[in-house]
Specification:
- It comes from Sorangium atrum.
- The strands form four sheets. A four-stranded antiparallel β-sheet has the order 3-2-5-7, with no helix packed on it.
- A hairpin with a 2-residue loop joins strand 2 and strand 3.
- Helix content is 48%, strand content 18%.
Length: 333
């Protein structure tokens, strides 16, 4: 472990973050209760998290830094400040989930990958996107929850597993060393319904796409009309030069000329130019306003709207993990 730490420090000082990450990870895996203390393991987890943060591995960084800061009171103040600053930098890039499990010894899997510890409450971090959380325990029905993770958001829910009452009664009877009659069948309770993800997490993205499309379309149309106005202005100038070169005509009298006369054509060009110029300018300004509002939405936090209750609905989401492919169907009947 000490050799890995030495190599990791040397790689970190040289800015070789990939090598430093590998060495600190190996040191953390080599550390155990017999050869290291909780504070040493917390320090290793924090240093590993900072190296992962430098490589933009935000989920791994957030997980290791949170693990380190569980022992924050025992860490030196300088290390505590470094690890807390790293956690603040990683937080906007990941979603945080506080998961409660009942029974507490249930096995928890995230996207098909088992979490290597058991607890009643877990603090988990996710990359943005769709994820599947599964809980399972012997004698219990698996619990599933589909999570649409949003960067910078915090989620919290409890995942109870429905366990067979008959198996519990049988185990209790065996422990007492007595025999009992066959228990009366009980009506199975309905499976716990997973909490549906809030639709407010996705609608800002749809509005942004619409805003970008409208801004691009209006600005493009306005630019085309302004170019057309410029072309019409050139045609009008050419026509006016022709009239002025004719000694029998006077361009200053053209604006009262009949429609079918050469001067009437000049007036038609002027009206078309003015209309194209006005409409084109209005479209460009409108597109600019829409574009500015769309750009501003990327710096606006809409998470507070998630508190609004969603209407009952059926939601179908594709789920792909390292071991499973399918769909998650959630609904209220």
């Amino acid at each position: 472990m000490k050799e890995h730490v030495r190599r990791g420090r040397r790689a970190r000082k040289a800015g070789q973050w990939t090598e430093a990450t590998a060495e600190y990870k190996a040191a953390l895996e080599a550390a155990d209760a017999s050869t290291s203390t909780e504070v040493e393991r917390a320090e290793l987890a924090g240093e590993l998290g900072l190296c992962e943060l430098a490589l933009h591995k935000y989920r791994d960084a957030a997980e290791h830094l949170a693990r380190s800061l569980e022992q924050r009171e025992a860490l030196p103040e300088a290390l505590q400040q470094r690890f807390e600053a790293g956690q603040r930098n990683a937080a906007p890039h990941v979603a945080r989930l506080v998961l409660g499990v009942d029974p507490p010894d249930a096995e928890v899997l995230v996207d098909g990958k088992r979490i290597g510890r058991t607890a009643r409450t877990y603090t988990l971090f996710f990359e943005p996107g769709q994820h599947m959380v599964r809980g399972r325990a012997p004698g219990c029905k698996d619990a599933l929850h589909s999570l649409r993770a949003v960067a910078g958001a915090e989620h919290e829910f409890t995942m109870p597993l429905l366990c067979a009452a008959a198996s519990g009664a049988k185990e209790a009877s065996s422990a007492r060393g007595t025999t009992t009659a066959t228990p009366t069948p009980v009506r199975a309770l309905p499976a716990p319904r997973a909490q549906a993800s809030s639709p407010w997490a996705s609608w800002p993205g749809t509005l942004r796409v619409v805003g970008i499309t409208l801004a691009t379309g209006t600005v493009s149309a306005g630019a085309i009309l302004m170019i057309s106005a410029s072309k019409l202005d050139q045609d009008m100038s050419a026509r006016r030069d022709q009239l002025e070169s004719d000694p029998r005509s006077n361009s200053s009298m053209c604006w009262q000329a009949p429609e079918r006369s050469p001067c009437g054509e000049l007036r038609r060009l002027r009206d078309a130019r003015n209309l194209s110029d006005r409409v084109g300018t209005a479209l460009v300004i409108t597109g600019g306003v829409i574009g500015a509002a769309t750009a501003a939405s990327f710096f606006t936090d809409f998470s507070f709207l998630g508190r609004t209750s969603a209407q009952d609905r059926v939601q179908i989401s594709p789920v792909v993990t390292g071991h499973e492919t399918g769909v998650s169907i959630e609904g209220v009947w």
